[in-house]
Protein 1
Amino acid sequence: MFRQTIFFSAVILLLSAMAWADSWKGSDADRLASLAGNWAVVDSEGTLTDLRASYLVLARGAGVMETLFAHTPEETVTVYYVEKKELAATQLSGRGGPVHLRAARTKERDTLYFETAAAKSDGSGLRSVRLTRLDDERLRVEWTFLTDGAEGESRAFELRREATVEELAAEVGRLRVSVESLQREIDRRLKNAVILDPNSKSSKKFLETRTLPPGPGWSVSGVAFRRFLLDQTVPFASTFASKGDPGMTVGHFGFEAGAGCRLRFSVLGGHGFIAVVDEKRAPPRRIASIPDFAVDLEGGEYGTIIEKIVGGHWSKHAIAVEWDLSRFEGKSLRLYVVDAETDHYGQIALSEVSLIETATE
């Protein structure tokens, strides 16, 4: 086990490889400082293991401290530093006395070689460590041991640099910006999509916007919607989600009716309902009691219901719906999907909603 501990100190040297990742450009202090961070050990199949090493820059770049197996009997701490203009290291372990190592010259490209300053009195212990740069993120470390005064066992290890918390946060930020930018572009294209209405005999052009809860413009209270594809092709959103039939949901989407406004979608059964309201006042941001809200909505508290459909028992065949809202041109309308039921079939599902209006030339 002591040899394994010494072996992992080779990992520390392996971190030196990071120091020379750019062919040893910069000062020794810079090379040592570049070891800072976390590394993971990779197995023979290239999979990251649970073995880790941590490195901390000391004294404004004058040294680097490596900690392995912290808070265990095998804990090993190695300090790397520059001594007489040469890289050196001292390892401390609970399994034995300090081991001193010093860099030695090698003609191999992208390789750093260390030797122990002196062998143990019994002629055993760590003899040398060879670090080879594989690429910017991977290092290979090889070490040899002395046995009875002769060079004996040899082992090799590969390490992979892990991203720092700051790097991960920055990457998440970049992904978030990318996703948000993509969503804005999708929304922009949908809002400006000019189509020819396949159900119209006229040559008029129409604007079509498609939306599906949850998504841009939707507000949802209660159980989150579950999205799925009907027949692997048609996007649907269902209130049958984490709590199944007992779950309750309200989703709503506000819009202004334009010229020739129509809504198209399909419904799959359940005892919830879908309605369009000529809005008198906006719903609360957070709906505390969905059953009470459903009663108020149907009672006209938030405006007159101008179209409504109630789902039936679940069926594999969706019901196609088209509501002509052209008579409400210029008015603020709101589409509601309400599941205030907790009995069997206490749910409802609707397809992607198409909001179609006459395009202005």
Protein 2
Amino acid sequence: MTTQSEQAQQTANQMKEGAKNQAQRVAEETRSAWSQVQENPTPSGIMGALENMPATTYLWATLGSIGLSLLLRIFGRREFANFVGLWPPTILALAMLSKQFRPSREM
């Protein structure tokens, strides 16, 4: 008979494995979209890559740019921090544009 703590540990391990698989899938889709841009660096190729990128890539890019801006601010690079701080709205606009092109891809 398994105890409650063993069941909790099993559930945690399953969740960890699921998150790991999801992260690997997103990374692979992002790499695929990036290679598409490298093969076809025209506006249509870039838009095609943006359409194929998973939504979580945009989320992590947004959070990363906010974090980078904060770190730059802490280290005294105010002007560059402000520049990087302007990236999140652009990234989110690209995500919304992507969803306009392919609304039913995820979700």
Protein 3
Amino acid sequence: MRIAKSFAIALLVGAPLAALAQSVPYDIKVCNITEATVIDSAGDVTVLATHGRGITDSNPAGGPFDGTTYECRSVMDASKVSVEFSGRCTFVDKDGHKALGAFTGTPKGWEWKFVGGTGKWEGIRGGGTTKPLKQYARLSPTVTAACAHATGTYEINK
């Protein structure tokens, strides 16, 4: 009985907070330059650390994350059979507010989730998916350039 009452109170107290958060869609194009460094290898598996920097444009212009810059770091396992990676990114808007995120996936597509933020992005949560758009000519054997399309939703408690 006491547990049920505590649960009911928690639902009533939490309900107003959930009602204040509104899910907002985002649709962005992200383009970056990424440098990879080999960490180790064993057999046909190579482990790499990547460091990328880039810019975003929202669709339509002026939408969420339009004109932000970002920096990502990831670890990648690559073999003849598969490539998988996971990492973290920091997006910074023109006012210096940050949105932090985590991702995991393969070169064919990856999942994204927001893990924190500052300023107008404080309390951000949500996420989405990203698919590659275009790979550009390599600048060197370890430096690549690419663009991708990301969609999803985010919420911020007001």
